[in-house]
Specification:
The complex is a heterodimer of chains A (470) and B (301).
Chain A (H helix, E strand, L loop, with lengths): L9 E2 L12 H19 L15 E4 L4 E4 L2 E3 L5 H21 L2 H6 L1 H17 L2 H9 L4 H27 L4 H10 L4 H21 L1 H7 L1 H9 L6 E4 L1 H5 L14 H7 L9 H5 L19 H13 L6 E4 L1 H6 L8 H22 L4 E7 L6 E2 L5 E11 L5 E8 L5 E4 L6 E3 L4 E10 L7 E10 L7 E8 L3
Helix pairs in contact in A: 2-16, 4-6, 4-8, 6-7, 6-8, 9-10
Chain B lengths: L12 E6 L3 E4 L3 E2 H20 L4 E2 L2 E2 L5 E6 L2 E6 L2 H11 L1 H15 L2 H6 L1 H23 L24 H10 L1 E5 L7 H14 L6 H10 L4 H4 L30 H14 L1 E5 L8 H15 L3
Antiparallel strand pairs in B: 1-2, 4-5, 6-7, 8-9
The chains are: A alpha+beta (470), B alpha+beta (301).
The complex binds iron/sulfur cluster (SF4) (2 copies).
Chain lengths: 470, 301
């Protein structure tokens, strides 16, 4: 449409130097950061007594096909729990986004957390916004080299700790630490740690808000979850602009009364909200894709309003509707109730399923090739492949019997008498069932029954069929 | 791109208009994105140099990457391709090395040790399942169910040449030649009587008088099948007193007349079968694992 353009097709990123700010949202963000990091960085080192099993409290053992989460052991058969958890997370995200906007982006997203942490390091070494801008403008003198070098070194160290910690969730953490420095860690471990160190360093150190703007799909489709009642950090343009717009605190425009009389709004155009924004945008331009809803501009503006002695909330969490008409958003509306119920149902289902995890899996597969064999003594033999998976943290001593087959003799191949399945192991058995010859081609349904010799688990039965020869 | 809504400048739009006034800015991409695109081009050129890539006539560019493989005791370099990679991995990957170690362990163990050790047993079973499929299943069937009259059932508990592991191992290594001569001269009443007698040995309901008469004719069978019809595993002579049949399928036959006809056929025509020797085709440890597998198939002795 409009052809007049001053922008080139490819544009250099303009560096952002967010100013530090104090306030409710900053405190909340810092709290989340500290808590999340405490959990993430310390969890792999926590030990847990599991008898024969690995002693790491949280361990995702891919080669062994087990996830260990404290008391819970997740087996491949339980993998639909993962689906359940993912469904809950997805719906929770939709729910939260619909009600309070991109709370995930602003406070919980890894990109936000790591960028925030890297900015803390940056500020600690180089100083706040103005100092960092100065350093950036300097030629490469010793001061710049030492400060930038120190920052990057600290970033790199932090990135390595991040990569290492992540990898430690998939193997024994203490063993990995030892192996890493003695050169004995497996190649994939080095690769994963190296890859994550590099990506963390680059993405949290340099790419930053560009991840949100160019790469992250969530920022692209967040708008479909919003409605007019969604709470988002908003600039109250009616109050801020008045009739004639915003204006600096000039002569005759010092008090609110003077300003209102002159037709100006409450925004003194100090630019602080832009300076603190980690994505470098101006919230006064309204809702935009780059806004991660971190609330720092609210803190910044509240600081200014306090200083002026004016009421807070020129920038505040408010819905579009509220800014326009002043009507507060509803808490109970079809969307919140619907999502809320759906999340509740899946959560209850998931918890129920986890609490009622079967103590063992038992499967029976008939050997089909040959189906039935006449034995030397005239009886007929059918064979079955039986798999028993022990999911309880102790060895299972079991008895295998049949129900509903008169005169059956069962024999476990290899001459085994006692079935003992070690803790958390899978046992394959070939079981032969012998029966006096019956009518040709006839079939009989029966059940294999496994009983716990220690009586702690209820007997488990599996249906099977016995076939006579043709 | 820090300020996407710079109202002072006219930004190019894509030309699409929705709802009358909704336009899409054609904002520039960041430079690093463009560089990433160039990087993929550089990557593919490097890839062409290293790995097989371009077809040239009937051949192709081989690339400079190589794989070290061992051939006839000598190491040599082959150009990289998924095949040479596979050869190398079968020779020296950790899994291949581990498998070789385990095979050595099984090779050094006695049959008793293997049967007593569930891990070795499971290993032998899964390895031998493959050998069985490759070498045995063509005749004996995938599950050892056999195909009469020439290929006996291995999944029952009846063993012509003996069901001890040592005997099974000999059958596999040296092969077996089973030969029941034909007796075409036995005909008519004598044939019917002899067939009745043979069936009576395994408890089939035949005419008692006929069976009694047939006992006379059985004298010439005793050399191999024994005075009581218990067979002889040294000769591969079948046990006639049990209910498992290894040449003809008696349990499947309907009437007693049909059964007699089947037995008479074997008496008149004889049967010659041969199990080939595998001692020169399979390694001793492979024979060993196969022995364990076959032994377990039908419940060995
Ligand atoms: S911080 Fe508040 S007063 Fe200052 S420019 Fe931003 S909106 Fe206006
Ligand atoms: S505009 Fe405000 S809420 Fe949005 S990212 Fe910037 S500081 Fe955070």
């Amino acid at each position: 449409m409009s052809v007049e353009t001053e922008e080139k097709l490819y544009q250099k990123r303009i560096a952002i130097h967010p100013k530090s700010v104090k306030g409710t949202f900053r405190t909340f963000k810092t709290g989340v950061l500290v808590l999340a990091y405490a959990v993430f960085f310390l969890l792999p080192w926590l030990r847990w007594d599991r008898g024969d099993g690995p002693s790491q409290a949280v361990l995702f053992d891919i080669p062994g096909r087990r996830f260990y989460i404290f008391e819970l052991i997740v087996h491949p058969q339980d993998i639909y729990w993962l689906a359940g958890a993912l469904i809950i997370f997805a719906w929770l995200l939709f729910f939260v986004t619909g009600v309070v906007g991109r709370a995930f982006c602003g406070y919980f997203c890894f990109q936000t957390l790591w960028t925030d942490a890297f900015m803390f390091i940056e500020r600690w070494i180089q100083g706040d916004r103005q100092k960092r801008i100065n350093i950036d403008k300097m030629p490469w003198n010793p001061e710049k080299i030492s400060k930038k070098g120190l920052t990057w070194a600290a970033w790199l160290l932090f990135a390595w700790i991040t990569g290492f910690t992540f990898t430690a969730y998939w193997t024994d953490a203490y063993g990995l630490l030892n192996d890493f420095f003695t050169g004995r860690a497996p190649y994939p471990a080095y690769f994963t740690i190296g890859f994550l160190t590099l990506t963390t360093f680059v993405v949290a150190g340099f790419v930053r808000e560009q991840v949100c703007i160019y790469m992250c799909p969530y920022s692209r489709f967040q708008a479909v979850m919003f409605d007019k009642e969604t709470l988002i950090p908003s600039y109250d343009y009616k109050r801020g602009e008045g009739e004639k717009g915003r204006a600096h605190l000039g002569r005759g425009l010092k008090t609110r009364e003077e300003r209102q009389a002159a037709g100006y709004g409450d925004c003194i155009d100090c630019g602080l909200c832009v300076q603190v924004c980690p994505t470098g945008i101006d919230i006064r331009n309204g809702l935009q894709i780059a806004c991660i809803n971190c609330g720092l501009c609210i803190d910044a503006c509240n600081e200014i309003m306090d200083k002026q002695g004016w009421e807070r909330g020129l920038i505040r969490y408010a819905s579009e509707q509220e800014i326009e008409t002043g009507s507060k958003p509803r808490v109970f509306k079809p969307k919140t109730i619907g999502y809320g119920l759906a999340i509740l149902v899946v959560t209850v289902f998931l918890i129920y399923s986890i609490l009622h995890q079967a103590p063992m899996d038992f499967s029976v597969n008939q050997v089909r090739n040959p189906l039935a064999v006449t034995l030397a003594d005239g009886r007929v033999q059918n064979s079955y492949e039986i798999k028993i998976n022990n999911k309880v943290p102790r060895p299972l001593r079991l008895d295998l019997g049949v129900e509903g087959l008169a005169d059956a003799e069962i024999e476990i191949a290899g001459g085994k008498k006692d079935i003992e399945v070690p803790s958390d192991k899978l046992l394959h058995l070939l079981v032969r069932v012998k029966l006096p010859a019956g009518a040709k081609n006839s079939q009989q349904n029966f059940r294999f029954v496994l009983t716990d010799k220690d009586g702690q688990i209820k007997p488990v039965a599996m249906n099977a069929t016995f076939n006579m020869p043709r | 791109m820090t300020n996407p809504t710079n109202k002072s400048k006219q930004v190019e739009t894509t030309g699409h208009v929705w709802d009358g006034d909704l336009r899409e800015y054609n904002n520039p991409l960041p430079n690093w994105w463009l560089w990433a695109f160039y990087a993929t081009i550089v990557f593919s050129i490097i890839y062409w140099v290293i790995y097989p890539a371009w077809p040239v006539g009937k051949s192709f560019t081989r690339g400079i990457a190589t794989v070290t493989v061992e051939e006839n005791g000598q190491t040599k370099e082959m150009p990289w391709n998924s095949r040479s990679q596979l050869i190398a991995e079968m020779q020296s990957s950790p899994a291949a090395v581990k498998q070789r170690e385990y095979i050595e362990k099984v090779a050094a163990a006695s049959y008793e040790e293997i049967f007593a050790n569930p891990d070795m047993m499971a290993f032998a079973r899964s390895m031998a399942k493959g050998y069985f499929g490759d070498y045995c299943a063509a005749c004996h069937g995938q599950g050892g169910q056999g195909n009469l009259p020439f290929f006996p059932n291995l999944a029952d508990d009846d063993w012509l040449w003996g069901g001890q592991v040592e005997q099974i191992q000999v059958s596999l290594q040296a092969g077996r030649k089973g030969n029941m001569p034909a007796f075409p001269n036995i005909q008519g009443q004598a044939l019917d009587d002899l067939a009745s007698y043979v069936l009576s040995l395994s408890g089939e309901a035949v005419d008692a008088a006929a069976a009694e008469r047939g006992k006379q004719g059985y004298a010439m069978c005793m050399g191999c099948h024994g005075a009581e019809g218990k067979g002889n595993p040294m000769l591969g002579a079948a046990n006639l007193t049990d209910k498992a049949w290894s040449v003809i399928n008696i349990p499947a036959a309907g009437s007693i007349e049909e059964k007699k006809k089947l037995v008479a056929g074997v008496i008149n025509k004889g049967i010659a079968r041969e199990m080939p020797a595998f001692g020169n085709r399979l390694k001793p440890e492979e024979i060993k694992m196969l022995t364990v597998y076959v032994h377990e198939l039908g419940g060995g002795k």
